[in-house]
Amino acid sequence: MELMTTLRARLLSPLNATESLFIEDAVVVVDEAGIISEVATYDGRPVESDLRGGLLVPGFVDTHIHFPQTRVIGRASGPLLPWLENVVFPEEARFADSSHAEAVADIFCGQLARHGTTLPFVYSSVHEQACDVLFRAFKKRGYRAFAGPVLMDRDCPDSLTRVTSDAIRSLERLAADWHSERLRLAVIPRFALSCSPELLREGARFAQEHSLFVSTHMSENVDECRLTVERFGTDDYLQVYENAGLIHERTILAHCIHCSESELSRMKEAGLKIAHCPDSNAFLGSGGMPVDLYVERGIEVTLGTDIAAGRTFSVPEICARAYDNGRAHGVELSLRTLFYWGTRGGALALGVPEVGHLAVGAEADMCLVSMPDWIESEEEALNALLFDRANTAVEKTWVKGALVYDASQ
Ligand code: GUN
Ligand code: ZN
After folding, report:
1. Mutate to test the pocket of ligand 1, among 190, 224, 256, 307 (most ligand atoms within 8 A of CB)
2. Which of 63, 131, 147, 163 could join 302 in a cystine, given CB atoms 3.0 to 4.6 angstroms apart?
3. For the whole model, what pTM was predicted?
4. In the predicted model, what is the mean pLDDT of the chain?
């Protein structure tokens, strides 16, 4: 007999960027392979789990987060460049020690699950072993994830630099050991200022050869932008990455706050994706992200917590910060759009159509969020999920049907 799980709850799932599905009393059936086999209005059948006190939503997708910054969240110390030097680099240097990486990987994965994130795109430290530890932690929990070591060979402490040939050899070994359907190796030059042109180029070549996703930071801070263009002698920031071959459909660029018209049209042309990190932008005083310019042009936007410049693992909270950031630009983003960015939109941007919504055939990556009993409509549910921190919290998280977090245990 096939083992199945039947759940009863309120349900909210994105359909696309402008529509979502709300069922006030839903039944969801998950088969023994962890695939959703039915989503319907409750019809009186017996259920294994009556979860009507909560709202069932897809697991969240965080397209930009730093694993080795887990322990330095909220360590305020000025704008991007001094913060990297004084807070981030000393902490990332500790990941040369695999036992440190193991301890932090446990905390990091626990926090992802506790906040309902089931598909993260993770920057590890420069160290091959730390990335190995991270992949092992994800494997143990049955997670889907994208991850890779950051590539760095200049302008940082010696202990955080790897020469290009060593870095590429590490990528080769990590690809052989881990790259698979659920765990995807990504190529992550940290940002232009920590990479030589050769490292950027060789990273891009490796990504092309293995069809890997690429991610990096871009146009986050005005000093960073000025120094980048000066150092590389290009017309603008994007050209540095274009010249290296890093810009294509499998590229996720984080921040993109200070981009020109020309950069925006080339981004659209390339089909790359943006990881919008509004909490981080606010914390480091990086500037307001003109998100309407991206939406107007049809450039795909996704959401990143950007731990540790971002101060929360919660993607719904990042949706709220993105809403506030939009407001400051005179744009009122729809809550459906924000919810989509943090779920289905993020998954599709990463080329993972199997997750991000609660629909027949999807993998049961889900979370249950506690919800006041007065929430009875789609609008109320979206509003509470994104804004009502006092009355909502993740209670359970499942990855492919398996429980990975339960607040009651
Ligand atoms: N730019 C280069 N490295 C980083 C980082 O670790 N965090 C953020 N927010 N920006 C960066
Ligand atoms: Zn970042």
Report:
1. 190
2. 63
3. 0.98
4. 97
